[in-house]
Amino acid sequence: MRRLDLASAALLAILAVIFPFFVNAYWLHVMIIGMMFAIMAASWSLLAGYAGQFSFGHMGFVAVGGYTAGLLATGLNLPLPLGMLAGVLLSALLGGVIGWTCLRMSGPYLAIFTMAFSEVLRIIIVTEVEVTGGAGGMNVPQLFHARTDLPYYYLILALLMVSVGGMMAVVASRWGLFFRAIRENEQAAAAAGVKVTRFRIIAFAIASSLAGLAGAFYAPYIGILTPDVASQDQMGLVVAMAIVGGMESLPGAVAGAIVVEFLVEALRSYGQWRLVLFGALLLFTMRFARNGLIAPGWLRLRNLAAPRGARLAKEAAD
Amino acid sequence: MLQYFLIQAANGLVIGILFALIATGLTIIFSILKIVNFAHGEIYMVGGYFGYYVITLLGVPPFPAVLVAMALTFLFSIAVERGLLTPLYSPRIERKADYGILVTFGLSVFLRNIAIIIFGPFPLRPPSFITGDLVLGGLIISYDRLVAAGGGLLLLGALIWFLNRTVWGQALNAVSQSRESASIVGINSERMYMLAFGLGGALAGGAGALIAPIYSLSPSMGLVPDTQAFVIVILGGLGSVSGTIIAALLLGLSENLFIAFLPDPSRGPSYANAFGLAIMMLVLLFRPTGIFGRQHVAME
């Protein structure tokens, strides 16, 4: 089984590397945005799916990463990569602080608290026009001076692979076990010796730093940053991506993000119907297929491919 | 200057009463179904549009239109509850609170965006209840605001009567305290879930219909009340109706006075919402049961 997974991962990596040579600039752009959303969705699914911490403030950290990078680059004339790094670090720090302040909260209280955090941040960005450009947006300098988006493509591909690979390593390690133990029952986990406080903060810090990373990439790539990145509709889109992919599967969240982003673009001519469709897709998945659509589909496909003998042996073992 | 404060305070009270309607709906849903409805602001929006179309398409006069809108929102909420929330009652599902959060959050995105298609992105304004302004010395307040406040108070009074003096209200109270014990004495708890969700939705819908002539209707109108209603129920203590009403009045007043006192008028209105949210975050940190909350309320 494991070999099949590794082989498909390698195949996907090769396909991703040669992808730009087969598509035009437009679909390259779509893929870049899709991979950026993939980082957001996968990190949200680490926090909500694995650690069970329902945060609706994820897009707040995307805004922190983006605006920090942009403000340091335009305001203080720091080199952009340094600003982006600062954005990631600040998101990690702020995420840790939020994780620490929310230690006593769970479920809907946590969701409301984090939603309020992100909303306060958005209101500040909208109101402080002199600093952030307000609702009109802030211009951010380019990272690369190339004619195509190719450098951005390979940068985000590398960032996606490193961050998802890192998260998968974390999830496969003892830490992942701790995260799931905390999700299932905090008291029982604490009784069994899991340092609940530490790992809740760690989960928040990891997820927020990656959200900040996605924001820090988004700002120079798009070139203009608006407070809409922290809006509830954007949060809804990311949640839909993670859920359609499968809440407790990081590759599922990545696939969900890319599939949904391509659908968004393919359905562009339907305008407003798209968000309705994704809202409906989210509701449908939650109502009838709570494990998501993509990750369980892949499992089923993999089982079909398994040799008949292995399948029978597994069934006998079960 | 004093006159300005007086007007702000009066407006704050009016808004507070309408917030109280929305937030008591949220708190009733929470105390019975044990979920926080993240689509509550969108149900308020739907109620406002129901009111508008009942007046403009069916030609119902504005006052009865509020009641018709409430009845329609009641039915709409029950349809939502039957369609999406029944898994909450099945023993097969783990982590029910998470399911409730995600499904209502998805519903809010869905309703907000489908409203843009059905109702259009532009603000709509139904006719006034009574045109003109009441002038009392230095105090000027429009009749629409007075009607909204009066209607809101009537509805809140009717709600308190319903919850305390009728069999249905007592059954709801029983289910909120213990589902098992309520079943033992023969209360059909599934019917109570329907009633609570419908009632909560109808209160929000009534607020939407009452507020429509003051602030016009738009698909995104639910966003601010959504977060403000969270602020109120957290302040008042999730699950406490009287605490919610007091907290709503306090919030309406203090936000409007905050606008009046903040020296920078361009920032006042936008920071008023952040002010409420900041207070809520502090309450969540230091007193999670709320200022007037019941001690025993906890998520399952």
Task: Name some characteristics of this structure.
heterodimer, A: 318 residues, mainly alpha, globular, B: 300 residues, two-stranded antiparallel ribbon
Entry summary:
The complex is a heterodimer of chains A (318) and B (300). Chain A is 77% helix and 1% strand. Chain A has 318 residues and is mainly alpha-helical.
Shape descriptor of chain B: globular
Q: Give the N-terminus to C-terminus distance of chain B in angstroms.
A: 50 Å
Percent of residues in helices of chain B: over 70%
Number of domains of chain A: 1
Low-confidence stretches of chain B: 295-300
Strands of chain A, total number: 2
Strand order of the largest sheet of chain A: 1-2
Question: N- to C-terminal separation of chain A?
Answer: 16 Å
N-to-C order of helices and strands of chain B: HHHHEEHHHHHHH
The radius of gyration over CA of chain A amounts to 20 Å
Uncertain stretches of chain A: none
Assembly state here?
heterodimer
Helix/strand-derived class of chain B? mainly alpha
Q: What is the share of helical residues of chain A?
A: over 70%
The largest β sheet of chain B comes out as:
2 strands, antiparallel
Total domain modules of chain B: 1
Strand content of chain A: under 5%
Molecular structure report:
The complex is a heterodimer of chains A (318) and B (300). Chain A has 15 helices and 2 strands. With 318 residues, chain A is mostly helical. Chain A has one domain (2-313). Chain A has a two-stranded antiparallel sheet. In chain A, α3 (58-75) packs parallel to α5 (107-127), α4 (80-101) packs antiparallel against α10 (196-222) and α8 packs across α10. The radius of gyration of chain A is 20 Å and the shape is globular. Helix content of chain B is 73%, strand content 3%. Residues 295-300 of chain B have low confidence and may be disordered. Chain B has one domain. In chain B, β1 and β2 form a beta hairpin. In chain B, α2 crosses α8 (189-215), α9 packs parallel to α11 (268-286) and α10 packs across α11. In chain B, strands 1-2 form a two-stranded antiparallel ribbon. With 300 residues, chain B is mainly α. The A-B interface holds A 48, 52, 54, 56, 101, 104-109, 111-113, 115-117, 119-120, 123-124, 126-127, 232-233, 236, 239-240, 243, 272-273, 275-276, 278-280, 282-283, 286-287, 290 and B 35-36, 38, 83-84, 87, 93, 95, 97-103, 105-114, 116-117, 223, 227, 230-231, 234, 267, 270-271, 273-274, 277-278, 280-281, 284-285, 288, 299.
